[in-house]
Amino acid sequence: MSLVRPLLSALLVLATASTPGLAQAPPPGRDPQIGQTFRVPYKRTLTNHYLVRCRINGKGPFNFLVDTGAPALFIGTEAGKAVGLVPDERAFWTPVDRFQIEGGIDLRNVKARIEDPFQLEGMNALGLPGAQIHGILGFTILARFRMEFDPTDDRMTWTRLDYDPKDPYVPSDPALRQAPADVQAMNLLGPAMKLMSVFVGRQPEDIRLPQGLLGIELTEANGRLAVAAVLPDSPAAAAEIHPGDLIEALANAPVQTAAQAHEAVSRLQPGETVEITLRRGDQQLTRNLQATSGF
Amino acid sequence: MPRLRHFHHILIGMVVVYAAAGMVLPALPEAALPPPPPRGDAEPIVVPFKMLPSNHMVVDARLNGKGPYRFIFDLGAPVTLLNNRTAEATGAIDKKAPKSFLLGTRGEGRIDRLELGDLRADDVPVIIMDHPALRALGGLFSRPLSGIIGYTFWARYKMTIDYQAQLLTFTPVDFEVRDLMKELPQRMTGPKTARQVVHAPRSLWGLDVAEVDGDQAGLGVRVTKVVPGSPAADAGLQVGDLLTSLDGRWTTSVADTLAAAEGVPPGRPAEVVILRHGIEQTIRVTPREGL
């Protein structure tokens, strides 16, 4: 949920100004990506939020929340600082020369609001999503695309439309940008959740580790699992494993299929040792392989 | 949990943030997860939406045969949210259910039947509260808003959002809609140990990579080894190449690279983007089955 502060402020002013005088986006040159379709990888957080990775002026990547409930592009102050974006005290929007979204999307000359919506502040303080969220992709970015989203697919499909959405109206006088009182009160929640994190603790992010490499190419034949090839200069080569050897067990688990072999070493890390039992002719051989880094 | 109680008002505030009331009102009966949605043999259903001048998407929805009511359609909302008035009018909650002092939060209710045009979802869990932002938006445009349609509804579908045509298209998919309201309290009070995730590609590439410092940090990983005779070597990768993406995913760390490789099954060609002497090249690699 991110009906966030500035949009609300913008709204309020819409009412007082009583004119839908939406500011027109500056006339952009035709985007060469119009008509192109992109496969955008995303991550679903533990809080059921959908994150995509973005680069701001070539730097990053940063995690952005895909949020049709937000009217514009929001960049958190931390990410803003990390890429050297300094918001102008008087200007509501900060120009961003280049904004890239993982999957090949490359937008030029977009406007961002640099601030920390309380939702992000609170969630990040508690670490609840399981990943730091650096900003929000709202309407002014999302509406440039036809977005296809299938929760059973690991990527979204975005097609660039020939359409440049308008910015939400923002009053020139900062004093008019105040949100209604009860909405302002909600802004206190971010710091309150930060305080609470002192007591309940912050949820740690996952530690992501690479699997180790053994250097064995596999083949399945006649219900048996065999070594198809051995990569030169690999742990398997060092242990003198040969093409044609049948693999009977791996990490103390009997294996007959490639899927079982993958499962047996799915948590093997570089430097760790794993036992492999092979059949070569009528011989049974046991070898210890120390995994290296690589894939 | 006792320590949490001291922060009751903050927790209620968090309901606003997550629109998730389960952790605030742990005494509520736990609702079962919605049944799996129908299989994908259904035709896509097209639903129009409108944009508010504030750039929010609005859809008309019928609740338990009543309405239409106006909802914000929100891909950033992990739950579906309903205001008290609409909840009572549609029977989503008992009128006598107690209200919290803050924002009229009443915890969890259910909508037996939620319809957007010809699209119908049964048994949708909702959080009932009067969200100030909705009140403000509704008041501003002189047309009340009844709530927010979030994850617990749209995650049941394959969905297309076309802002230009102002149309949503839905096709049911078989996807377990996770109940945040059950998971969040457990997560808040559970152990604070980080999970270890090992990225384990099924395919053998014959590559090793390392993270880089300086100007190119965050841009990619350096190829430190290419095994002779391997798929990577066959495709022409070289030591020193800066690998910036693999199969359309950015490779900004070793873990990222392995995570991207995890998505490529053996035998399927994948595009790898490298910077070699500052020039970008795209190379196709077909990894093989291996360990």
What does this structure look like?
The complex is a heterodimer of chains A (295) and B (291). With 295 residues, chain A is α+β, with helices and mostly antiparallel strands. Chain A has two domains: 5-200, Cathepsin D, subunit A, domain 1; 216-290, PDZ domain (Pdz3 Domain). In chain A, 21% of the residues lie in helices and 33% in strands. Chain A is built from eight helices and 17 strands. In chain A, the strands form four sheets. Chain A has a six-stranded mixed β-barrel. Chain A has a four-stranded antiparallel sheet with strand order 15-14-16-17. In chain A, helix 3 packs parallel to helix 6 (189-200). The radius of gyration of chain A is 26 Å and the shape is elongated. Chain B is of the alpha+beta class and 291 residues long. Chain B folds into two domains: 2-189, Acid Proteases (Cathepsin D, subunit A, domain 1), CATH 2.40.70; 203-289, Pdz3 Domain. Chain B has helices at 2-5, 8-18, 84-89, 132-140, 151-154, 180-189, 231-235, 254-262; strands at 45-48, 50-51, 57-63, 66-73, 81-82, 107-116, 119-128, 147-149, 157-162, 167-172, 196-199, 203-204, 207-211, 221-226, 242-246, 249-250, 270-276, 279-285, 288-289. At the A-B interface, helix 1, strand 4, helix 3, helix 4 and strand 9 of A face helix 2, helix 4, strand 9, helix 6 and strand 11 of B. Strand 11 (207-210) of chain A pairs parallel with strand 11 of chain B.
